Structures are given as structure tokens and as C-alpha cells.
Amino acid sequence: MFGRRGVGAEDFAATTVMSNRNGSNVDVFETLTITGFPGTVHIKVTYTLSNNSVWTTHISANAESPTPLLLSSHVYWNLDGYKDSQTILNHTLYLKSSSYIKGDGILIPTGEIVEIEEGAALDFKDSPVIGSRLNDTVGVCGTGCIGLDTCFIYDEGITTDDTAMILASAASGIKLSIKTNQPAGQVYTCSGQHGLIPRKVSQGGPSTSYDEYSCVVLEQEGWIDGINNPQWGQNQIYGTPGREHYNWWSEYSFTTF
User: Fold this and answer.
1) What is each CA distance from 59 to 15, 48, 65, 191, 241, in whole angstroms?
2) Which of the residues 74, 117, 244, 245 is marked catalytic?
3) Is 64 annotated as catalytic?
4) Its pTM surpasses 0.85
5) What CA–CA distance (Å, rounded) separates 152 from 185?
6) Exposed (0-12), middle (13-18) or buried (19+): which is 153, by Cβ within 10 Å?
7) Which residues contact 217 (CB under 8 A, 6 or more apart)?
8) Which of 58, 91, 219, 251 is an active site residue?
9) Which tens digits make up the pLDDT trace of 96-118?
10) Catalytic annotation on 244?
11) CB contact at 8 A, 187 and 216
């Protein structure tokens, strides 16, 4: 966020480039310069789609003066494409995580890091079906909410060579594997979608809408609210000597099973 207006609400200048760097790639570059929080920040986003069904997103930013930065990519997924099913509750989810950041009733982090017990509702190391854990998530995504809107901290030692998340659907046979250079991942099961947004035409719209649990967000990120919890040791200020450059990278690989 920059002030009252988020980066996602800004208009980026986009350029598309075809390349053969690693086969038949398509690169899309988006750039934005924004000021006032408190420094001037230059942001560049690069999307690369390669012919081996790998989509890579790279966000780089430079701050001209000390500025908190916690950028990410907020993509909504449904591996069935609203054809084989209308929900992500039939998807399985794998997370290489043993802890999460606890939020209060309106999802403001409390400062508590919760260790996940083996087999608990938020233990996704055994790739459970998302819907099988739903009834055990009451309040996890806020007061009166059922589902996830949770920042999972990846296990110590994970690298960009490791798969941090796997989302898969037996209905479509599609598996999405994610690698990242970020230390955490936010999982949002679209619990706040209440049929108010019409679907795209390719997804059955506009006469139908996106409902609860019709999508899931897998947002690679830093520790949310780390700037207000110095005890975590997460430096999220950029634009200082030796920390001028912000670098965010994630790779999304699609396969079938």
C-alpha cells in the first residue's frame, strides 16, 4: 500500500516482447513510479510465459529514500476453470510450512507466531483436500469467517530450488507447483466472495458470479506486518545504503497427473 491507495489500483505501463531466450517465451513488462510513502519508488514487473508451461513473475523496485516495501502478486486460481467444478474445495493443497502469523477478528496480525501441530486444520504438508479442513477453520480468516486468509511462514532452509506450494485438482488433472524467493505465502480461499462480481465470459459469465470458495489466492510474500513487529527480525525498509533494491520472484509450473 502507498498511503490510501494500493499499488494494485495504479495504472502500469505495459510492453509485450516475444523472445527465444529459453524457447518460445512471451515477456510482458509493466512499470510504475509512485511517490509519497514516503519516498519515490520505481517498480518493474516482468511476466514470462515459456513453452514448457512455466509462468514466472519478477517484481523489482528501487526506493530513492527509506520506504517500507511488501509487494506481491494477487492471482485468483481455480484449476477446473469452472468447467469440471465450481469450487476449489475439491482441490488439494501442499504447503511447506510449520507455522503461521495469527490475525485478530479483522485480520490485523497480533504479533503471535503459531506453531502448526501435525494433522491440525492448518497442516497442509500431507496435501489434504481443502474442503476437508473447512469446518475446522472457523474464525481463522476473521470473526465469523470460515476458510483461510492466512500468512504461512515457510520452513527454515527453503530455497528457490524447493517447491513451497502445490495446488492440484483431480477433476481437471492439473497441478500447479510454486517456487519463490519469499519467506511466506498467504492463502485466501475466497471466503469474502459473495456473488457480487460477474464472472468472465470464458468462465461462464457474466450471468453467473464468483461465489464463496470458487477461487483461491496463493500470494508469495514477506512476513505481513513485519515492520510493526521488530521482534521477528524482518527488515522491510528499502532505500537505505545496501538495501536500495527490492526483489520478488515466483515460478508457477503447470503439469498434469
Assistant:
1) 15, 12, 19, 27, 20
2) 74
3) no
4) yes
5) 5
6) buried
7) 74, 75, 76, 77, 186, 187, 188, 190
8) 219
9) 999 999 999 999 999 999 999 99
10) no
11) yes
